[in-house]
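ok so heres the complex, two chains, lmk if somethin looks off
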Amino acid sequence: MSADNREVMLTLDRVSLSYKSRRGSFDHGSHHVLDGVSLKVYEGETLGIIGRNGVGKSTLLRLIAGILSPTSGTVRQRPGKTASLLTIGLGFRPDLSGRDNAMLASMLQGATAKQARGYLEEIKEFSELGDSFEERVKTYSSGMLARLGFTTALKTHVDILLIDEVLSVGDAQFREKAEAAMKSRISGDQTVIFVSHVESQVRDICTRAVCLNRGAIVAEGEPGDVLGAYQALLN
Amino acid sequence: MRRKFADRITLTGLHLMSPLQYVRLIDTMARMSLRADASKDVLGYIWWVLEPLLFVAVFYVVFELILNSGRADYLVFLMCGKLAFIWFSKSVNQAANSIVANRGLIGRVNVTKTLFPLSVVQEGLYRQLAVFALLFAFLYVRGFPPDMTWVYLLPVIVVNYLMIVACALIGSCLVCMVRDFTMFISLGMTFLLFTSGVFWDVRSLGDPVKTDLVLAINPLAFILDAYRQVLMHNTAPDWWHLFLLGCGSVVLVLIVARVMRRASQYLALRALS
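and the predicted structre for the whole thing:
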């Protein structure tokens, strides 16, 4: 099925984001993170976003998740749909246990306390954290954090799943399992926007891709073509 | 600015959440934090009452043993004021930093930013319940047995709580926008400690006009005095004054909560950048 036949889940229209940040006392610099990005995301597709570090990929996901507002332009999402952002490590409260963090993350995504408790055993099992699930997250390695983050998002239900690099961490065995779970979810109705540096993942998982450079989209289309454009940029 | 907010038609978890669910989330966060805090130290939950008691002890040594207050009931007097003051100052100080402290979560979920200061305030409320129980027990031992008039304490505590919520919300926004406000807020707390009659009696200033002025200008001085009037003298607080303070706090809370809801993405950008 071509993307155009599907319903649009999300539209970005000439979206720009800039902000002032402090460089020293009384000294402010202006950052232009995104500059006039227009993009449509279709229901059920898996859109890959590629680009070098610092080109605005994560910011783009945050705009889509409604965490940030564009300085200019519009972000429109189908009413009643939820978007959730999945990132490595960030967002966990280090002083809380894995269980508490998973509970909190589920509740923040709109689950009731009862529903969230219902997810916990599944999360514990899939993440293979074992007894570490009851330990504080600050004792976790980056791989364990990725497992917890990935599983929490996988087990709670959102309409648009935004994934920021999370599949790139963790050991090979878990990565395989995560990719398989991801694929089975993608084959359903799940709409996914996926940021990754791993070319093979983008090629395997994504149905479409865009390449960002300096806050603007420089290539859009089939993952293979876009990866080619990305390679050209790197060179 | 208005156009930008209107154009944003994102519905994420928290926007679909019912008010009851939101309250449950605040409560869950507060309880988790309490549990995590308690498991950090050897003395755990004992710190809830030990910390305020140590503060009281410090003030007692200085103002009674060294400076000799000249009051027979000074320790009771000090505890009534100081324990309520610590509730206020600690909650507001912690809540003020709460949005910035949770920027990890804020960078991941579109969440109404009131969640963070409110869960800190809720955490403080749970601790304070233990502290109040200790205070009542202490009063009983020192010859101030529970009295029917202690019922008056309920509205005093409610208004005190509302004042904390209002200041916590305002403080959290200010610190989120300009981090330097942390310094101003902790300095402000020191200022309030000295001007609210924590270790001196507003009613023994010698000049009734001055007493009225302090009580009228400083809401915290009024509240601390109201605790003492009820607990030590079995006297009702000035209801009208209390009512106005309560209404003022509610209005502030509603306004600031609304502003925070509307400026949620702006606050997120400030917290993240």
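quick notes: The interface with chain B takes residues 19-21, 31, 62, 65-70, 72, 74-77, 79-87, 90-93, 95-97, 100, 103-105, 107-113, 136, 158 of chain A (CB under 8 Å). thats all i got rn
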